[in-house]
């Protein structure tokens, strides 16, 4: 009997996969700020969200949205969930659904990477691909809501769900504050659903209102996965423009070039939107001094290999 008790006690000391979400490393860039360090005394720090178990910052809100919906009695294991996604949220939701026992239907434009599709299917999700010419993510969002109205499942709606930014108020923001010992002066994030920048920025501002929140948005003509500028009709409801102090417009070529550079020069293999955030962080460093600048590496570069960016 004691052996059985000892085994149960021992196994309970090991984390489950969902308990490994968050507490990601914060690392200092060594070469890109300057060969001998930033001459203005700035420090640029990368928050490695690709270290989450499903490989992106979206692991945090995916689990948050499901757990809080459960707590409110909206869903129970065995139910079907639906979400429109450009990739990372879909992969994260597929993982979270597998962990907690849900069926997952994901709707994604067909012009996004093959790696993302394969990852979603690996976690057991059903994938519906829409034609890019039908309207991209906007059409995917409309289709998800249409399927919900037909009774085919519940849309968690990352674009309007307050449990999305809440994940960063409770997790990402406090981690960055603690990891920098409260010395952070600038926070930089790509803007997609805006959950990361809204939640993290809100927490950091509550600790020090002088921290500058910098959002990376696409320059005209750029098509960077994970960085979006929505039309008024599709603006995420969780977004508050007052939560962003400065916007940086990121070009397609400079984001892709930076993705290659940061991998080759810093050993940080991140995605294209992460590189766009770094472009913005380096611009911040050019106009300030003695700053502690944190940017989000929101996913891993291996999700983009089939697109040829790293060839």
UniProtKB/TrEMBL annotation:
What InterPro entries does the record tag this protein with? Cys_synth, Cys_Synth/Cystath_Beta-Synth, CysM, P-phosphate_BS, TrpB-like_PALP, TrpB-like_PALP_sf
Query: Which GO biological process annotations does it have?
Result: cysteine biosynthetic process from serine
Would I find Hydrolase among this entry's keywords? no
Q: What class of enzyme is it?
A: transferase
Which pathway features in its UniProt record?
Answer: Amino-acid biosynthesis; L-cysteine biosynthesis; L-cysteine from L-serine: step 2/2
Any idea which UniProt keywords this protein has? Amino-acid biosynthesis, Cysteine biosynthesis, Pyridoxal phosphate, Transferase
According to the UniProt entry, the coiled-coil residues are none
Annotated Tryptophan synthase beta chain-like PALP domain ranges read: 18-299
N6-(pyridoxal phosphate)lysine: modified positions: 58
Q: What is its EC number?
A: 2.5.1.47
Q: Which family does it belong to?
A: Belongs to the cysteine synthase/cystathionine beta-synthase family.
Q: What is this protein called?
A: Cysteine synthase
Q: Which organism is it from?
A: Advenella faeciporci
């Amino acid at each position: 009997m004691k052996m059985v008790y000892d085994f149960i006690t021992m196994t309970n000391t090991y984390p489950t996969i969902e308990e490994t979400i968050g507490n990601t490393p914060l690392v200092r860039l060594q070469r890109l700020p300057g060969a001998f360090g930033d001459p203005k005394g700035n420090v640029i720090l990368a928050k490695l969200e690709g270290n989450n178990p499903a490989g992106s910052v979206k692991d945090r809100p995916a689990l948050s949205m499901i757990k809080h919906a459960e707590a409110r009695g909206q869903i129970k294991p065995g139910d079907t969930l639906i979400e429109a996604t450009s990739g990372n949220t879909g992969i994260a939701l597929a993982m979270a659904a597998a962990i907690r026992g849900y069926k997952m239907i994901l709707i994604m434009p067909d012009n996004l990477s093959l790696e993302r599709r394969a990852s979603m299917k690996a976690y057991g999700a059903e994938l519906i691909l829409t034609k890019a010419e039908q309207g991209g993510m906007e059409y995917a969002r409309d289709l998800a809501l249409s399927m919900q109205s037909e009774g085919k499942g519940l849309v968690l709606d990352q674009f309007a769900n307050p449990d999305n930014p809440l994940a960063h108020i409770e997790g990402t923001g406090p981690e960055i504050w603690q990891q920098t010992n409260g010395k952070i002066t600038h926070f930089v994030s790509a803007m997609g659903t805006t959950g990361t920048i809204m939640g993290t920025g809100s927490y950091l501002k509550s600790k020090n209102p002088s921290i500058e929140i910098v959002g990376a948005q696409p320059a005209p003509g750029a098509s960077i996965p994970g960085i979006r500028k929505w039309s008024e009709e599709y603006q995420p409801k969780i977004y508050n423009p007052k939560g962003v102090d400065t916007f940086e417009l990121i070009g397609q070529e400079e984001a892709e070039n930076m993705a290659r550079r940061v991998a080759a020069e810093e050993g940080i293999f991140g995605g294209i939107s992460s590189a766009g955030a770094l472009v913005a962080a380096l611009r911040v460093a050019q106009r300030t001094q003695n700053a502690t600048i944190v940017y989000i590496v929101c996913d891993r570069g291996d999700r983009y290999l089939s697109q040829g960016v790293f060839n």
